[in-house]
Design brief:
heterodimer; A: alpha+beta; Aldehyde Oxidoreductase, domain 3; Aldehyde Oxidoreductase, domain 4; 3 domains; globular; B: alpha+beta; Uridine Diphospho-n-acetylenolpyruvylglucosamine Reductase, domain 2; Uridine Diphospho-n-acetylenolpyruvylglucosamine Reductase, domain 3; Enolase-like, domain 1; five-stranded antiparallel β-sheet; four-stranded antiparallel β-sheet; 14 strands; Caffeine dehydrogenase subunit beta (chain B); FAD binding (chain B); CO_DH_flav_C_dom_sf (chain B)
């Protein structure tokens, strides 16, 4: 009986659902509180900092000069590319501030309230400079450089142009020109950033419990910034309340926190509040894509010519750098479409705004919106149905090499779309739509087909020329004398259910039940070096490494069983907790084998005692795919959009636990709908963030998100050792394109174009006012 | 997100609360449900030195039916209106409105009088008070005085309640049987502050409007009763055309300001839409 493919309740959930989870702030008892004094201005030179009289300071105040005197170095994210501009990121701003909310001073006091009182008494004098906020500001001819190192304000640029682009546009029967914009978003994890740093006098070490996705990487980065031995630090990611990519970066607050902990030799806790998370956590998706597509009369896409701009904020996030959005956009824009000619330039643009860092989907929600709008709008011009447009352009032969050199493994782009179209029942919808229009109601249907590159191994990151190249994963697997397995992984799950999924995978390889497998993650003292959980990688990569490690355990169990039962090891099968000798009725409990190799190891002179193995995996990467179909009703008077149906046909390869996969898709779609309709960070012209509370920044709730209808296909790819592909981001990637397509379909009688997301009621009304179609 | 330090008092009567207000002057602040005050204290936008908690004053709790009006104690929770407090049209209307106030947990704590005293432009209860011609009973050092809703709201977050005074009770005149009521609000998400909202009450006989009440909220500094339009409605047929025309008229009478959730132009359009829809609902209710 296989555990793979079963909807096993998550092993993580009993604790989490009963409130027994442990988040870093649960570990703050006895700690002194840390607060940061933050810049009220977006850009300027620090001319002075007024502090209270020393006798009035109940606690400590640290400034940039204190950290510098302590040997703290700025964080430096590095790409080895000639087009990359390196900008040091200080833990505390000393000379200049470059975004509103940048930490200028750190205060330590007995309680959070007292720390806030103390922080209020620190006054930072700033000589303002012209703020550079938007992409337009930053690229203006007379724009002030945000940093001395970034003349022109371009921090990184990818570009290529195949020789046939111009000819393709000359030959085209139809050219579609898009100027699409995604407003700035933030990942909005339920739990903000923060950490508890605890000093151990006996060892001289500091343990940092922090809400992070990459604990090993954080430790390496902290040791570099603090110029200390890595061994003096232990980083633990306990239960983490959501990351979505936003907790990959080494934020400067962590550097200051750990430095202060070594300095004061006291337990310290920094628990950021929601406002801080808005101001100084990471942002994303502030992107403008200007793209032209050339099509033949038959609707075949011939070429793309594009200028992609991503506002990457004031700094380059460590370790993945500010290349993450622009370089992904550059490499992956073609998506699942088969065409040859590609002329794209993609820039990461610096500004006096909070730092961009990865957020679920990264550049792909926007590039999928772009490709899908090209298909829809070209179809409308050429009189070809949107589904037929995609039929004529989707990749169907594998492996497929994209114009940017990506190799697409076996997938089901066309099949998934056809399945979705069939389930959605377009003819029935079109009939409903016609009837509704006759009554003055506007229904629409929209389609998005896309690829989701997952399981990025080192080659994918190395191609971006990252100085720190993540990608592989390592796993230690040990079976103890009781026959129970401990799996120590370098990945760092934080809500995804990975521990359950890995237990199911390993259970099948070893022949024991998943509840006999304990997965340990997120502790640099207890797990092998690895890269954490992000980029839809953990099931593919940690899964592959776990499978290798488990297979070695199974091999050893067969050898032990073979010796004890006096049969060749290869005749042993493992299952249901037993080692069974083929062709006999003999079996031994796996627990007995484990006990024997630990307690009677002298009987196995050919073998090492115990059962401990390692697995490594560094895949080339694989592509999941999906088709999303969304039905909406647009209220043309209010501009409101209601989603009536959301359908997903997902192909993520082998399903280990369908319930967990469905959860990933549903959560992703909700965040995609947020991107399409609701969430928007707004800076004013001075760089003040106008949306710094949940009254102004609007994540949708259960009331706004419809039930998500999910169907699966399972294309097994040879490019992933388990057969499973990643599925962490697809929902987020496809949903904006499907929603926008549906809105435009609904408003087709008015000829409305949606060019900016979120498509808010205000924007939809403005588009209706400007539209050339009949008045409402 | 931790408030500045403050002292806390829990008076047991209106007179005790007034004495504390007199004692602390500018530094004293009344707290009722705390659903607006506590978040602003956590942001340190509000920094009262002294909180005077009126949640435990028995004489200003609950709703009583006084025949021709409902008398609502200031610390009556929003959730009290989840079911009609009176079988009359007004009682049923309050139940329609309350579902639009924020979220369920907030409705358990937030109070009717707190909402009026805070005077957020997008407060549903403020719109009800203005449209229905409520009367506010304000207690102060000189005793009690009654202020009609039309004179109560002075601007955004500003009312007729003085620094040393306390809103104790609200009287809402009942609508006679036969009136229909309709409420419509538009917000970005369920439970958010409205971008525009309207409240209508209609008396319809044989398809003709005989009397009307109409108010508009969240467009402008405080809700407003549109008496000119009430007069225009009277005598008109209760049809979608009438309601659309009245909405269009309203659009010319308001001068909203834009913000990040909607431009001024958008809000003006939305005013027309919510008015037409509230009137439509009121006509359906009357039928």
């Amino acid at each position: 009986m296989s555990w793979i493919g079963r909807t096993l309740p998550r092993l993580e959930d009993p604790a989490l659902l009963r409130g027994l989870g442990r988040y870093f702030a649960d570990l703050a008892r006895g700690a002194q509180a840390v607060k940061f004094v933050r810049s009220p201005m977006a850009a300027g030179v620090i001319t002075g900092i007024d502090l209270p009289d020393p006798e009035d300071i109940r606690g400590h105040i640290f400034l940039a000069r204190d950290l510098e005197a302590g040997g703290v170095r700025p964080v430096q994210a590095v790409l080895d590319r000639p087009d990359y501009r390196r900008v040091p990121h200080p833990a505390l701003a000393g000379a200049r501030v470059v975004f509103t909310g940048q930490a200028v001073a750190m205060v330590v006091a007995e309680t959070e309230a007292l720390a806030e009182d103390l922080a209020e008494q620190v006054f930072v004098d700033i000589e303002p400079e012209d703020p550079v906020i938007s992409i337009g500001d930053a690229l203006a001819e007379d724009a002030r450089p945000v940093h001395p190192e970034t003349p022109g304000n371009v921090m990184v640029e990818g570009a290529m142009r195949t020789p046939g682009v111009d000819q393709a546009f000359t030959d085209a029967a139809c050219v579609v020109e898009l100027n699409l914009r995604s407003q700035r978003q933030t990942a909005m994890p339920m739990e903000g950033r923060g950490g508890v740093a605890d000093y151990d006098a006996a060892s001289g070490r500091v343990t940092l419990y922090a809400s992070v996705q990459m604990p090993h990487m954080l430790r390496t980065g902290l040791a570099d910034a603090l110029a200390i031995d890595e061994g003096l630090l232990r980083v633990v990611a306990p239960d983490v309340g959501g990351g979505f990519g936003s907790k990959m970066a080494l934020f400067p607050e962590y550097v200051a926190l750990v430095w202060a902990c070594f300095r004061l030799k006291r337990k310290l806790a920094w628990i950021e509040d929601r406002r801080e998370n808005f101001l100084a956590g990471s942002h994303s998706r502030d992107q403008i894509f200007s793209v032209k597509g050339a099509f033949s009369a038959e609707g075949r896409l011939l070429a793309i010519d594009g200028d992609l701009r991503s506002n990457v904020g004031a700094y380059s996030c460590y370790p993945v750098t500010c290349g993450v959005e622009p370089l992904m956009a550059f490499a992956e824009l073609p998506g699942p479409y088969d065409f040859a000619h590609y002329g794209v330039r993609s820039r990461g643009i610096t500004s006096n705004t909070a730092m961009m860092a990865p957020y679920r989907g990264v550049a792909r929600p926007m590039l999928t919106l772009t490709m899908e709008q090209l298909m829809d709008r070209a179809g409308a011009k050429l009189g070809i149905d949107p589904v037929e447009m995609r039929r004529r352009n989707l990749v169907t032969k594998f492996p497929h090499t994209s114009p940017t050199g990506l190799v697409f493994d076996e997938a089901s782009y066309l099949e998934a779309m056809e399945a979705a179209v069939k389930i959605a029942d377009y003819p029935a919808f079109r009939a409903r739509q016609a009837e509704a229009r006759a009554g003055g109601r506007y229904l629409g249907i929209g389609l998005a087909v896309f690829s989701e590159r997952t399981g990025y191994g080192t080659p994918a990151f190395a191609a971006r020329k990252m100085a720190i190249v993540p990608g592989y994963e390592s796993v230690d697997c040990e079976m103890g004398p009781s026959g129970q397995v401990t799996l120590r992984i370098g990945a760092s799950p934080h809500g995804q259910g990975l521990k359950t999924a890995l237990a199911q995978l390993v259970a099948d390889r070893i022949g024991i039940a998943p509840d006999q497998i304990r997965v340990i993650a997120g502790d640099t003292d207890a797990t092998p070096y690895g890269w954490g959980s992000f980029a839809s990688r953990s099931m593919v990569i940690a899964g592959g490494a776990s499978q290798f490690a488990a297979d070695k355990v199974a091999d050893k169990l067969r050898r032990i069983a073979g010796q004890l039962m006096e049969v060749p090891p290869e005749t042993i099968t493992l299952g249901d907790g037993l080692a069974m000798a083929a062709g006999t009725n003999r079996s031994l409990p796996i627990g007995d084998l484990a006990r024997a190799i630990h307690s009677q190891s002298h009987r196995f002179p050919e073998m090492e005692p115990g059962i401990r193995t390692q697995g490594f995996y560094d895949p080339p990467g694989t592509f999941s795919n999906a088709a999303h179909i969304c039905e909406v009703e647009v209220d043309t008077q209010t501009g409101g959009v209601r989603i009536d149906r959301f359908l997903v046909v997902e192909d993520a390869g082998l399903l280990i636990n369908p319930m967990i996969v469905d959860g990933q898709i549903a959560g992703g779609v909700a965040q995609g709908i947020a991107n399409a309709l609701y969430e928007e960070l707004i800076y004013d012209e001075y760089g003040t963030l106008l949306t710094s509370s949940l009254a102004d920044y609007l994540p949708p709730t259960c009331a706004e998100i419809p039930p998500i209808e999910i169907h699966h296909m399972e294309t097994l790819s040879p490019e992933t050792v388990t057969g499973a592909k990643g599925v962490g981001e697809g929902g987020t990637i496809g949903a904006p394109a499907a929603v926008v397509s549906a809105i435009m379909d609904a408003l087709a009688p008015f000829g409305v174009e949606i060019n900016t997301i979120p498509a808010t009621p205000d924007r939809i009304r403005a588009a209706l006012r400007e539209a050339k179609g009949p008045a409402r | 997100m931790k408030p500045a330090s403050f002292s806390y008092h829990k008076p047991g009567s209106v007179s005790a609360a007034l004495a504390l207000l007199a004692q602390f002057g500018e530094e004293g602040k009344i707290i009722a449900g705390g659903q607006s005050l506590v978040p602003s204290m956590n942001f340190r936008l509000a920094r009262p030195e002294t909180l005077i908690d009126i949640n435990h004053i028995a004489e200003i709790q609950g709703v009583s039916d006084q025949g021709d009006h409902l008398e609502i104690g200031a610390v009556t929770r929003h959730a009290t209106f989840h079911h009609p407090v009176s079988p009359c049209p007004l009682g049923r209307m309050l139940t329609k409105v309350v579902a639009n106030i924020a979220h369920y947990p907030i409705r358990q704590r937030g109070t009717f009088g707190g909402s009026l005293s805070h005077a957020d432009p997008a407060s549903e209860w403020c719109l009800v008070a203005v449209t229905m011609g409520a009367e506010m009973e304000i207690h102060g050092p000189a005793g009690a005085r009654r202020v009609p809703a039309a004179q109560f709201f002075r601007g955004t977050f500003t009312t007729a309640v003085g620094r040393d005074e306390l809103l104790a009770r609200i009287r809402l005149p009942k609508l006679p049987e036969g009136w229909g009521t309709g409420f419509y609000e538009f917000s970005r998400r369920k439970g958010d502050f409205a971008l525009a909202m309207a409240l209508a009450a209609l008396k319809v006989e044989g398809g003709t409007i005989r009397a009307a009440r109409l108010g508009l909220g969240a467009v402008g500094a405080h809700p407003q009763r549109l008496e000119a339009l009430e007069a225009e409605l009277t005598g008109q047929p209760a049809t979608p055309q009438t309601f659309a025309a009245i909405g269009a008229r309203a659009q010319t009478m308001v001068t909203p300001s834009g913000d990040i959730h909607g431009s001024a132009e958008y809000r003006r359009e939305l005013a027309a839409t919510v008015i037409a829809r509230a009137l439509t609902r009121a006509a359906e209710d009357a039928a």
